Amino acid sequence: MASSPCGNGNFDSGLEIKTRSVEQTLIPLVSQITTLINHKDKPKKSERTLAAIHRVGQAVSVAVGRFVAVGEAIATENQELKDEMGQACFEARRAGDAIAQLTDVASALPSQADGRVTVFSDRTGMVKAARLLLSSVTKVLVLADRIVIKQIITSRNKVLVTLDHLERVSTFQEFVQIFSQFGNEMVEFAHLTGDRQNDLKDEKKKARMAAARAVLEKCTMMLLTASKTCLRHPDCESARINKDGVFHRMRCALEQVIDIVTEARSCGENQLLPASIYNGIKDFKSSVECLRENLYSSSPQSMGSQLEALVERTEDFTDSAYTSHEQRQAILSVCQLARQDTQQLMNAWIEAQSVHAKEATEDMEVAILKTCQSIGDLRREVHKVAVGRATDLLKVHGEQLPLRALKTAGAEGNLEAVAEYSRKLTEQKEQLVETCRLLCHVSGTEPLEITCVHAEETFHVIGPQIISAAQTLALHPSSKIAKENLEVFCEAWESQLCDMALLLREINDVFEGRRGDKRPYLSLPRPGKLSANLKTAKAVKLDAEEQTSMAKLGLELRLLSSDLDTEVEKWEAQEHDIVRQSQSLASMAYNMYLFTRGEGLLKTTLDLFHQAEVLSEEGLQLCSALRTFSTQLVDEEKSVVMTELEKLVALCQQLQMGAKTPVQGKTATFQKVDSSIQTTKGILAVVLYLLPFCNKLSKKYKSERSSLGSPQDWREPTQKDILASVASGCCVEESACV
């Protein structure tokens, strides 16, 4: 909820700031108004102070004037908001004029005692004007934000209309023409929704938007091949089922996007997340620890019921046919231990209440510690089972045996073999769906829970679509379009397996405490890893002046980490060790940049030095990966890599030694911060030189291997690829298949 920094009681409570762009626009205005309000405490000012306040007041007035002019122009172009926008602009202009008048030197009166000018005698007037200004400006921004929402809705409506036309076409020529239009409209919709996703403040909404946009992106290529197959084989029932499934999924994803941007009630009702074990453990542990503060806030019976509800959620693990006997027994044993410890706590709690104790007794404290420990053991046990299951499945399914068999059987027209391998794929699908459900229990954050649900839904939908595509090919084994269609759906399955591997890594990193601000799976070092350093070091927090002097250095680090991210994204093999470790370096450097701004998870210099030490270790691991990579290079290429590698090793060792060296005093600590960031910049600069060079060599050797018959890695088609396919490929397909 938006609120005034001035304690505005009249602020429009109905205006909620939901996007970062609106929030960031308000920050400078809030800062200037705060400056004016703070100067109200001393009515007598020197000429220099008075001139500064006058400049701020006039600057606010001029800025408001420009702002209002833009708002009025928006109102003219959007008649449905004209009245509301006009009123908000009028109020903003009036408030800006009032502030200008209150800070006008000409209206101030000199004091008879010392000749100094006395200003701002009307403190109430200044506060009232500030409140009105913040309220009206926020309203203008929120109204302008409605225009963005309207653009997204309009774009969605265009896509839906074209989608309906595509579904009803009966000739290739008509399909090619309409799909070209559809592609352009989808590009526009993708840009608008991508900007909106990045602008949203709510992480859950961002995750839902990302899931819906991923469906639309992947379904666009499926829609192309499924529609072409249906046109080529209009009497084929499996082809029609395949096509209908894609159209239905796209419409659902389009509606989900609109539900998110308009905050429709159905979005909240339909997107309720399943009750997870992680959240149950967090809530139960909080209830237990609250007993230290208040013995009478709840009853022992309610705590017992809360534990039983939590244990009931573990049935998704213990009732699973894919859970081993040893894993099932381990979970049941921990649940039983948690019950015993909770019962002891409840007994001690009842006894403390019977003697009207005001705080937790010694017996209660012991029972609280034991209960929290057994609940922690339960979390670790279910995490181990879920992650272990997912890891094993990804290893098995990485070979893609059922998919390859389905392609072969379909191309041979062998319906019996297609049916047999369809059953195996269905079993795989059920295993993956259940595993996604287990991962949702242990994901640790709501955005990751949403991603788990999306993965579960994707496997659930794509599995049957692959089977219908294989059936179509088996019925028409000589059809190039049917073969292409099956390939596309198989690639979508493989793509989701890759996404699941990334999701698994993020869940693991959250569990181990490495969740950062930029990426959800990186930040602080693992608990206990640097325990020796923790005992000897003393945390120091930089003051405002030192933070300011760090700002320029931090900005340079931010630019380097951004450049590193850009280079990482250019690699096709995103699972390469060099890529993953470079991503880690970029994320940790970004956390250090946030520290220079006084933001993020690194709150003190001690946190920063821990992060620097972990970054140096990650850098040395990158050196190891680069050394391994260099073994496949020829002499000249290897020499270049090894030369830069020596620099990187030296810088990582320098950062590591510097981070471990204890210092005393504020000046020495500040110098250590400066040195750590400077060395980190040096590390990133070397990696930035090596990444594009190694990427170029990797592509070169991959191309050479490919020419000798090595299988090529699958790359997900981009929107540009899809449109190019329509422009150049569909016409050829039409003539070839009719």
TrEMBL record:
Its main location: cytoplasm. PANTHER family: ALPHA-CATULIN. GO terms for cellular component: cytoplasm. Pfam families: Vinculin. GO terms for molecular function: actin filament binding; cadherin binding. InterPro entries: Alpha-catenin/vinculin-like_sf (IPR036723), Alpha_catenin (IPR001033), CTNNAL1 (IPR030045), Vinculin/catenin (IPR006077). Belongs to the vinculin/alpha-catenin family. Gene3D superfamilies: Alpha-catenin/vinculin-like (1.20.120.230). SUPFAM superfamilies: alpha-catenin/vinculin-like. GO terms for biological process: cell adhesion; Rho protein signal transduction. Keywords: Cytoplasm. It is found in: Cytoplasm. This is Alpha-catulin.
